[in-house]
Specification:
- β1, α1 and β2 form a beta-alpha-beta unit.
- The chain has one domain: Alpha-Beta Complex (Spore Coat Polysaccharide Biosynthesis Protein SpsA, Chain A).
- The chain has ten helices and nine strands.
- The longest helix is centred in the C-terminal third of the chain and has 18 residues.
- By secondary structure, it is α/β, with parallel strands linked by helices.
- Helices cover 38% and strands 21% of the residues.
Length: 266
């Protein structure tokens, strides 16, 4: 069997309620070959039975064993992956139909790109769309003060990019994605945004990043913000002003991209 173009890495722990949607979303992809690596943390809720049910239906490999949390599971999945490109989809999120084929087309159109990312939708616990996240070209300023410039559910890394970054930082339990994408912005790799919706992020009561952030998440965000380099003018302006400017910049990017409809989703 030839090596897959894309390996989808999925960390999983006791989310059987949503895991099948994730598995099916990879199973039903069209286009180039895809490998799915699921790293389960020793679930006891029926997740393992689902993995056993689907393991012969498509190119799925999985393990179920105790781990040190989500970041550890993502890095384990990266180590197991054999694809030329990597995509990280959590077990309560999923790929949209045709995402891998659309990514392959974007890759062919942007052969020098090392990282290709698009947009994603927000869905509720039942999978009903409740919002959209339109991304734009990379911006450190937007990432720092408004919203991280992309999401893991809409991003594809060349293998060597993820290797160079060293995977996700396992010191983070909540902000590992924000940290990963900031470190990516600090590199010289070629990052390309395409106006395609690749994935779905599910918002539900049990999600780690839904609702009022716990103290640990707030501490991690504060740590990230403290590590961001800042210009002299940034140190003089209050954060609400900087956040408003970053939102405005994101809106300007949407207009220059010819996507005015995105302004309603800032």
């Amino acid at each position: 069997m030839s090596s897959p173009l894309v390996t989808v890495v999925t960390p999983s722990y006791n989310q059987a309620e949503f895991l099948e949607d994730t598995l099916v979303s990879v199973l039903e992809q069209s286009g180039p070959p895809v490998e799915h690596v699921v790293v389960d943390g020793g679930s006891t809720d029926g997740s393992v039975e689902l993995l056993e049910e689907y393991e012969d239906q498509y190119n799925l490999r999985w393990v179920s064993e105790p781990d040190e949390g989500q970041s550890d599971a993502v890095n384990k999945g990266i180590e197991m992956a054999t694809g030329e490109w990597l995509c990280w989809i959590n077990s309560d999120d999923y790929l949209l139909l045709g995402a891998i084929e659309s990514f392959a087309q974007a890759r062919e159109a942007n052969p020098r790109s090392d990282f290709i990312y698009g947009d994603f939708v927000f869905v509720d616990a039942d999978g009903n769309e409740i919002g959209k996240k339109y991304n734009t070209k990379p911006s450190k300023f937007v990432h720092k003060y408004w919203y991280q410039f992309t999401g893991n559910h809409s991003s594809f890394f060349k293998r060597e990019v993820m290797d160079a970054l060293g995977g996700v930082d396992e010191d983070y339990d909540y902000a590992m994605d924000t940290d990963l994408f900031w470190r990516l912005l600090e590199t010289d790799f070629t990052l390309t945004h395409v106006p395609v919706f690749f994935g779905a992020r599910r918002l539900h009561e049990a999600a780690k990043t839904t609702g009022e952030p716990p103290a640990e998440r707030r501490r991690e965000i504060a740590r990230l913000e403290a590590d961001y380099p800042t210009s002299a003018i940034e140190t003089l302006l209050p954060k609400p002003i900087l956040s408003g400017a970053a939102m405005g910049l994101q809106g300007l990017y949407h207009l220059t991209d010819g996507r005015p409809e995105a302004l309603a989703h800032l």
